[in-house]
From TrEMBL, chain A:
Keywords: Molybdenum, Oxidoreductase. SMART domains: Ald_Xan_dh_C. It comes from Tabrizicola soli. InterPro entries: Ald_Oxase/Xan_DH_a/b, Ald_Oxase/Xan_DH_a/b_sf, Ald_Oxase/xanthine_DH-like, AldOxase/xan_DH_MoCoBD1, AldOxase/xan_DH_MoCoBD2, AldOxase/xan_DH_Mopterin-bd_sf. Residues 21-139 form the Aldehyde oxidase/xanthine dehydrogenase a/b hammerhead domain. This is Xanthine dehydrogenase family protein molybdopterin-binding subunit. It comes from the Bacteria. Gene3D superfamilies: Aldehyde oxidase/xanthine dehydrogenase, a/b hammerhead, Aldehyde oxidase/xanthine dehydrogenase, molybdopterin binding domain. The keyword Oxidoreductase applies. The keyword Ribonucleoprotein does not apply.
UniProtKB/TrEMBL annotation, chain B:
SUPFAM superfamilies: 2Fe-2S ferredoxin-like, CO dehydrogenase ISP C-domain like. Transmembrane segments: none annotated. It comes from the Bacteria. PROSITE patterns: 2FE2S_FER_2. The keyword Acetylation does not apply. InterPro entries: 2Fe-2S-bd, 2Fe-2S-bd_dom_sf, 2Fe-2S_ferredoxin-like_sf, 2Fe-2S_ferredoxin-type, Beta-grasp_dom_sf, Diverse_Oxidoreductases. Residues 2-78 form the 2Fe-2S ferredoxin-type domain. Pfam families: Fer2, Fer2_2. This is (2Fe-2S)-binding protein. Coiled coil: none annotated. Keywords: 2Fe-2S, Iron, Iron-sulfur, Metal-binding, Oxidoreductase.
Length: 789, 161
């Protein structure tokens, strides 16, 4: 095995060379001869009835080819939803139409009304000023509770703003209520999980192209899952069969969930290119991204924990209002339900859990998965309520957690919320965290801070997440309208190099490097001989894409499965060439040998024989060496870990400064430690951003107040410390071939409660013992208000 | 439209530009140099940083006509003459200072300007200097580490090597 390039090596990324020299090929770098430019005219009010759209003056302006309105899209379908949730009463969720361009009403600031297509972008923008739009503004419904208590209807035709009212596990509801009656202690916490904006640095872009002579459509788009876009847009919106629709997602500049979904702009450019018979390009401005990319989180929750007299967790009860925004984005319904309610056992042996989620339509931008998706919301409330309980009971938050942990000898562990954890060791990650963060020395550091007039606090959070989504038969029962397998085609070339076509998509994760490491390791050839191809539906097998930390666990498993088929066939060829029994053939370091003999054939001997089959068992096997595999996981994977945040609060100003952040994760096996650590760093910055800085705010009329990087506080280099990360406490996944669990979202899941717990710890040490919670972001003004307000 | 000429990466170039054409659009669309990126429209993110006469500037905030005749350097002009990565670029690769790559050109150009001015910056100086460059992927850890390493400082003691 090449030691510097196989599994476990911190191989430098091959992608980097093109990105560091300006040679990346992002969607906005694509320009097709003859292309037109689209400029979207978006609603400036949150709710209103469209009275008139007059495009005549605009259409007469220089360079304008056409101004589109919903009338041009009368024959196409709405943007579909990929998941159906069923309410407690057995009714299915309300699913109002999400038109490509607004029909009759606008429902959020940013809702697209019309599109100017012109020869140049400047001409399109100039002409947009001349489109006359008359809207009768209606009262906006912004507050979720008001929305379901007789507020104005976002969608008149469905008669309610309540999308669904979900209970889980509904059969446990009475037993949970009973446990609370018997509890020795009940801790209750009301909290908000603040709305966030994903803001990958590359804004969305879509370029549509159409070949009149063949009827072939091509869409270049900033997507995490081009096959999913092809399926949703082709089958449900534009009625284009798969063989006439190619979707390409080239280099994509980050996603964090926001590029999973099928967006109206993709359908628009695809259809407009067909109507105009010229390529049509749309590039989002950042200002547009703030009002058109799906946003994240936005839960209002009451969480309650029941404990017995020995501080054992007896039951957990969660009541959440989850904001859907004005329309259902692609996976929106499943985020507050199946990716949230199923995680509320956390790392603990709580026997009874009940979650009620009311999903609500409001006149805001749609909300969907954002890094972590449901699991950060679950972890935040659970880890906050445990800390609050520890404080109320006067016990250590470390020991209260440890006492209630699922123990290493309890796996597989059937939780009361459907999922079965295959493996884990939460005591080990907690011990590692306490060691790395020098928890034992904390009191001395706190005393030193106090001497300087600062309040030092330490916050702990443990997390678990369900990754590697997902067993298709299970998610089908839960309402998914898709399978969630992954695919790979491994094409061995005649001279021994390998091209892998994967259904996963890399938009920062480094698959071109890590996937090649896996193949290199399995066959024993140098990783430079392996090329990873992704992002184009015309050459990759049908795959579900990259999100939910699933690429290596599911996509990597498909690749391993296909490679094993390759190895099996190669061994048959080797057995023929060496006149040996197939059972005696061994593959090691790129060489085939016959056990107990000195016979040997190289990898290239075999690949050449496969493609030049002169001496070849043609009667029993086909020439060539190419295999495709689809892998459907039998379970989720369950990464888990312990996070610790140490910070200082300035009691004079309420300013919080993070001094150290430590993460001890169990990701199972790790292919490239450098990349895994980088994923954790990035997740931590996003989680610290949520906890300290980021907040998407609308006013009561539905105007977005945090609509630019001047108003929405993205974490910057001087807002965060160097992090200490560790993944040595590994319990490999038991049900996928690589034993991997996924690492992409952990940092964003575990860090927000660690930060807030640390702030509360600091305030309590400073004598502000009446402060029981501060909602995120824990800005100086909120902290000061909590202390002195 | 008028013809605007300048020197970009050591080559004399010219392309059509309107009065309102921004330097970033002149580079991307006029010259096909798509390594310089646009990540926002409020001069906040720094994905578009280039050097104009040796100074780091946000090319989304400068009209092309206003820098006619200037000496401009972009990410495409940062590698060594033989095409190999420069010390700073190599440090970004060695220390995993990039993930999706979108903010990377701006990060490299901004960091290069810092090191030209301050060859041995402290961690705090690097973080402060990069305040105008937003990265959503890396959490900045490995970017700061890469810049410190490129300045010849020992970064082995920084956690998570």
């Amino acid at each position: 095995m090449p030691k510097d390039g196989g599994i476990g090596a911190s191989t430098k990324r091959r992608e980097d060379v093109r990105f560091l020299t300006g040679k990346g090929r992002y969607t906005d770098d694509i320009n097709i001869r003859g292309q037109l430019h689209a400029h979207f005219i978006r609603s400036q009010v949150a709710h209103g009835t469209i009275r008139k759209i007059d495009t005549r003056d605009a259409e007469a302006m220089p360079g304008v080819v056409k101004v589109f309105t919903s009338a041009d899209f009368a024959g196409v379908g709405g943007i579909p939803t990929g998941w159906q949730v069923t309410s407690r009463d057995g009714s299915v969720m309300l699913e109002p139409k999400h038109p490509v361009l607004a029909e009759g009403k606008v429902r959020h600031v940013g809702d697209p009304i019309a599109v100017v297509v012109a020869e140049t972008l400047d001409q399109a923008r100039d002409a947009a000023e001349a489109v006359e739009i008359d809207i009768d503004e209606l009262p906006a419904v912004m507050d979720m509770k008001a929305a379901v208590q007789g507020g104005p209807l976002v969608h008149d035709e469905i008669g309610s703003n309540l999308c669904y009212d979900w209970g889980f596990v509904e059969e446990n509801r009475a037993a949970v209520d009973e446990a609370f009656k018997k509890a020795a202690h009940v801790t209750t916490l009301d909290l908000v999980n603040n709305r966030l904006i994903a803001n990958p640095m590359e804004p969305r872009v879509a370029v549509g192209d159409y070949e009149d002579h063949s009827g072939q459509h091509t869409l270049y788009t900033t997507s995490q899952n081009p096959h999913v876009i092809r399926l949703l847009m082709g089958a449900f919106v534009l009625s284009i069969p798969e063989h006439k629709l190619r979707v390409v997602a080239p280099d994509v500049g980050g996603g964090f969930g926001s590029k999973i979904y099928h967006y109206a702009e993709e359908a628009f450019v695809t259809k407009a290119a067909q109507i105009l018979k010229r390529p049509v390009k749309w590039t989002s401005s950042r200002s547009e991204a703030f009002i058109s990319d799906a946003q994240g989180r936005d839960h209002q929750t009451r969480i309650q924990l029941a404990l017995d007299a020995d501080n054992n967790f007896m039951a957990l009860r969660c009541e959440t209002y989850a904001n859907m925004g004005a329309y259902l984005s692609t996976f929106a319904p499943c985020i507050p339900t199946w990716l949230h309610g199923t995680l509320l056992a956390g790392n603990y042996k709580t026997p009874l859990v009940y979650t009620n989620v009311k999903a609500v339509f409001t006149n805001t931008v749609p909300v969907d998965a954002y890094r972590g998706a449901g699991r950060p919301e679950a972890t935040f409330q659970l880890e906050r309520v445990i800390d609050k309980a520890a404080r109320e009971l006067g016990v250590s938050p470390v020991e209260l957690r440890r006492k209630n942990f699922i123990k290493p000898d309890q796996y597989p562990y059937q939780t009361p919320v459907a999922v079965v954890y295959d493996t884990g060791n939460y005591d080990a990650t907690l011990d590692k965290l306490l060691e790395l963060s020098d928890y034992a020395g904390f009191e001395a550091r706190a005393a030193e801070s106090k001497a300087r007039g600062k309040l030092r606090g330490f916050g702990l959070a443990h997390y678990i997440e369900a990754c590697g989504i997902a067993p298709s038969n299970l998610v089908g029962q839960l309402g998914a309208r898709a399978g969630l397998y992954e695919s790979a085609t491994v094409r061995v070339n005649a001279t021994g190099s390998i091209t892998v076509f994967t259904g996963s998509h890399s938009h920062g994760q480094g698959h071109e490097t890590t996937f090649a490491q896996v193949i290199s390791d399995m066959i024993g050839i140098d990783a430079s001989q392996v090329e990873i191809v992704h992002g184009d539906t015309s050459n990759t097998p049908m795959g579900m894409g990259t999100y939910g930390s699933r690429s290596l666990a599911v996509g990597g498993s498909a690749m391993v499965k296909a490679t094993n088929k390759i190895i099996n066939k190669a061994k048959k060829i080797a057995a023929h060439l060496m006149e040996a029994s197939e059972a005696d053939i061994e593959l090691k370091d790129g060489k085939f040998t016959v056990a107990g003999t000195d016979k040997e054939k190289t990898w290239v001997d075999i690949t050449l024989a496969a493609y030049v089959p002169h001496n070849y068992p043609l009667e029993s096997i086909e020439p060539g060496l190419e295999e495709t595999a689809f892998y459907d996981p039998s379970n989720f994977t369950y990464p888990a870990g312990a996070y610790g945040c140490e910070l200082e609060v300035d009691p004079e100003t309420g300013k919080v400064e993070i001094l150290a952040f430590t993460a001890a994760d169990d990701f199972g096996n790790v292919v490239n430690p450098m990349i895994v650590e980088g994923q954790v760093h990035g997740g931590l910055a996003q989680g610290i951003g949520q906890a300290m800085l980021e907040h998407c705010v609308f006013d009561e009329n539905g105007q977005l107040l945090s609509g630019s990087f001047m108003d929405y506080a993205m974490p910057r280099a001087d807002d965060v410390p160097f992090y200490s990360v560790d993944h040595s406490c590994a319990t490999p996944c038991t049900h996928n071939p690589l034993g991997v669990k996924g690492c992409g979202e952990a940092g964003a899941i575990g860090s927000p409660p660690a930060v807030v717990n640390a702030v509360l710890d600091a305030l309590h040490r400073g004598g502000f013992t009446n402060v029981t919670h501060i909602d995120m972001p824990v800005s100086p003004s909120r902290v000061w208000q909590a202390m002195h307000g | 439209m008028t013809k605007v000429s300048m020197t970009v990466n050591g080559r004399a170039v010219s392309a059509e530009a309107e009065g309102r054409t921004l330097l970033v659009n002149y580079l991307r669309e006029g010259l096909g140099l798509t390594g310089t990126h646009v990540g926002c429209d409020t001069s906040q993110c720094g994905a578009c940083v280039v050097h104009v006469d040796g100074q780091a500037v946000k090319s989304c905030t400068v009209f092309a006509q206003d820098v006619a005749g200037a000496d401009v350097r972009t990410i495409e002009g940062m590698a060594n003459a033989d095409g190999s990565l420069s010390t700073l670029q190599q440090a970004f690769q060695d220390h995993h200072g990039l993930q999706c790559g979108y903010c990377t050109p701006g990060m490299v150009m901004s960091s290069a300007a810092l090191l030209a001015e301050n060859p041995k910056p402290t961690e705090a100086e690097v973080r402060y200097h990069l305040e105008g460059n937003i990265c959503r992927c890396t959490g900045y850890h490995n970017i700061v580490k890469a810049v410190l390493a490129a300045s010849g400082q020992d970064v082995t003691k920084i956690a998570a090597e």
